[in-house]
Each structure stands twice: as structure tokens, then as C-alpha cells.
Amino acid sequence: MAKHVYLRHSTEMEVPFFDVDVMNIVWHGHYVKYLEVARCDLLDFIGYNYAVMLERGYMWPVVKLDLKYVRPARFGQKIRVEMALTEFESCLKIDYTICDAHSGAKLTRATTTQVAQRMDNGEMQFQTPDCWQDALRGTAGFQAA
Question: Pfam families given for it (predicted)?
């Protein structure tokens, strides 16, 4: 059964020199940074970025990360990170595909899961805050289940 996608978004970036190793390919740990850059762009698009999360009294730690490397990205390559938000009521779950921006060739697939945690007492939330859900539901392109 296919996952429902509530929102799609993508962002592009160029692989900088300082992200590659001696073989001129991106060191594996930098892919996590690319996910974070893309996720920040998505949150800005929604209008509920990390600054807003903090204002509302929540932090959103990543509690699960899964990466599958398909092909290496290389110095100077323009990449596109395509995101599909697949869960938002109990957690923030995003599926990612990193691909070559020109050819569309898949480079990496990933998934992250984040949960809301109250700043005042550190309590993990089993349902995301209403303010988050309202912001997402009001975003252009949101697709209700």
C-alpha cells in the first residue's frame, strides 16, 4: 500500500568543494547536512521553521534517520532534494530523494522522523501540537488524507 503524501517540496543546491573526499565524491556524512538544509527550506515554506517551533515552546529532535546510498554525488554537481511529508499528526516524517538536478538520476534515498518535545519540561509529545498541524494544513499544496 502506497504512503499518503501530505505535501511535496524540493530544493536545489550545489555540492561544495569542502564536502568531497580525495576521490572527489561527497563524504557519506554530508548527506545528512543536505537533508537538514532541504528540511529547513520546507519548514520555511510551511511558515513553521525552527525559530517558530522554539517560540511555541517545542524542540523537534530527529529520532530516526535512514539513508540508502545509490550513487555518489560529486564536487560541483547540482543536486535536488525532493521531499515527501508522509506523517504529521504523531511526528514529522519526511521521505527524501536526492537526485542529480539535470538528469534526475537518483543518488540517495532517506527518511527522517522528528518528534515534538516540550521545552519547559522535556516531555515528548505523542501528538504534534495543534499550532504545527494548523500551519501545515494551511500550506499551499497540502493534501488531506
Answer: 4HBT_2
Residues 17, 21, 27: CA angle, nearest 5 degrees:
95
Query: Using the 8-state DSSP alphabet, how is residue 123 labeled?
Result: P
Q: How far apart are CA 121 and CA 99, in angstroms?
A: 40
> Is 132:2 a contact under the CB 8 Å cutoff?
no
Neighbouring-strand partners of residue 10:
82
Taking a C-beta distance cutoff of 8 angstroms, is the pair 92, 113 a contact? yes
pLDDT digits 0-9 by tens, 8-55: 999 999 999 999 999 999 999 999 999 999 999 999 999 999 999 999
Cβ atoms within 10 Å of 37's Cβ, excluding its own: 13
Residue 122 Ramachandran class (φ > 0 left, ψ -120 to 50 alpha, else beta): left
Model-level pTM? Answer: 0.94
